[in-house]
Amino acid sequence: MEKQLVTINLKKANVLSAIMLVASIVVSFTLKMLVFKKYSYGLGEWDLLLVIVLCIIGFVIHECVHAIAFFLSGAPKSSIKFGAIPKKMILYCTTTKPLSPKCYKIALIAPLIVLGII
Asked: What share of the chain in percent tops pLDDT 70?
């Protein structure tokens, strides 16, 4: 298998993540207004706490879905690593075992399918 180095621009990734987070919050509050007929975007301290807690849980689940996809793609459990880069606000899951580009693509798209579509 030929090695291939793939990099991403972390600044662009963080900006895109922030945009998607804000968009999901706006959609959530809009749905809340439509369903519960509460026409206010007011955020109480409990609402804000709930959003923060759910985001943290979502981030952890997101990385676990990557890990499961790596495992199902043939990576040994011992080669799957989790980490964080606090300065750059990054959580990550990777594998020390080289996998095919197809396996990486599956692992990258898995959280979208599991958390976003399902």
From this structure: 89
CB 99 within 8 A of CB 75: yes
Number of H helices, E strands in the chain: 3, 2
Q: Encode pLDDT of 44-70 as tens digits.
A: 777 778 888 988 899 999 999 999 999
pLDDT at 18: 83
Inter-residue contact 55 to 21 (CB < 8 Å)? yes
Query: In 10 A of CB 110, how many CB atoms?
Result: 19
Which letter, b or e, does each residue of 56-65 get, where b requires 16 or more Cβ atoms within 10 Å of its Cβ?
A: eeeeeebbeb
